[in-house]
Amino acid sequence: MELVLPEEVRDACRLLNRHRKQAFVVGGGIRDLVLGMQPQDWDLATDARPREVERIFGGAGFRVVPTGVKYGTVTVYMNDLPLEITTFRVESNYSDFRRPSQVNFVADVKADLGRRDFTINALAYDPLRYHLCDPYHGMRDLIKEIIRAVGDAEERFSEDPLRMLRAVRFAAELGFSIDEKTKHAIIRNAELLNRISAERIRDELNRLLLAPHFQRGLEYLLEFGLLFVIFPELKEGWLFSQYHPSHRYTVLAHTMEAMRYTPPILKVRLAVLLHDVAKPRCFSRGDDGRGHFYGHALAGAEMAEQIMRRLHYSKRLIRDVVVLVREHMLALEMGPAAQRRLVARVGKELLPHLLSVRRADILAHSLKQVVRSLDEYDVFIGRLEKTLAEKIPLVMRDLAVSGRDIMEATAVPPGPLVGKILRKLWEEVLDDPHCNSREYLLERAKRILERDDAGRGAG
Ligand code: ATP
Ligand code: MG
């Protein structure tokens, strides 16, 4: 079997062979090549020890970085192409569920393939002899489009529980199914994912959420119980009826349905996943029996913040998702002043993402409601475009007066009062953009101050 690989990769294998060392391209690179996809990185496996690899490539004038010598890995730069070269090894004792506590180097590529997670990742290819080493029938599974654990699935997942999430992530990236035994082993061991660090879970989750078949990935997460290990809060909405004619799904089913309509943007997908997380906690029923969820957007924003902190997301991403969840109920019938205030709160950059969240949410309602809301949505967008085109001051910076102007005109000393006055003026301007003139605003500032004094005197 002949696979076309970059000449640099073949050169690296040639160099190792010249030193009487074996050399195979392994892992995801071969999988992707067979599938006709562009490999993201190149992994080589060899029986040469890390120090020998350093010597061989260093001696031939290539840049060598000892990235993980303890685990047998050296990165070699062939021209500009980085290759990860790892000595054949087996692992044991995954005591901390992160890295094997012991790595033993072995002489045989087959043993090395046996430690890998899935059959489709346990392929080794010799690009000089055009030979594929495939002891676990990875080719067969690639053709059948199946993710199957190498060896005993149960054992492999208890060694490293992250593999369960990787299985789902690969299914979402490749559009593959997960083999029955592998599936059952995940269901039985899902709770073990709790032992994995937040960062590793987060990174896999991000890739899953942005994968072409992310919908399938989410369904697997739910089916296997992994979703509720990562997001125990979402379990509250599972099978939770909404008792409302505009809904045809339970809370979590609605969320899953809404995900279908999201663009592949991480903050949007996270926001939609979490937008109704607080609904069960905010549930009440009216006299007519209808369900209500007053305050769920605000409560959801708080929960989303906690959840994302727990998963060690960046401050910036958390901030954006929190705003998206908090504002996700935006009323489509709002008038121009409310729209201006919305834009001021959300910011112009985040606004398109908020609209994506809103749209996805709308599309996951009852059909009658969808038709009605989509019409309203179009009207809303039309009006919003006009609002944005008006070039009115949408951030406080655009006010015709500054804090300094206020201090000079009113003799208020620097302090929180200045900010308070500015905010009041800004709200007026958002209500009526014609108010944004220097003379008018300074006059208003004085009025506000008088009222403030009067208020305090009376209090
Ligand atoms: P991608 O790069 O697209 O994520 P990949 O299969 O190359 O896919 P890597 O994380 O780059 O994944 O790992 C390279 C190879 O190392 C994998 O193909 C697999 O053989 C092995 N591997 C990676 N992580 C694990 C793990 N947790 N358990 C067992 N084997 C693993
Ligand atoms: Mg890789």
From TrEMBL:
Coiled coil: none annotated. Residues 23-148 form the Poly A polymerase head domain. One of its GO terms (molecular function) is nucleotide binding. Residues 302-444 form the CCA-adding enzyme C-terminal domain. Its cofactor is Mg(2+). GO terms for biological process: tRNA processing. Transmembrane segments: none annotated. Belongs to the tRNA nucleotidyltransferase/poly(A) polymerase family. This is Polynucleotide adenylyltransferase/metal dependent phosphohydrolase. It comes from Thermacetogenium phaeum (strain ATCC BAA-254 / DSM 26808 / PB). The lineage of its organism: Bacteria, Bacillati, Bacillota, Clostridia, Thermoanaerobacterales.
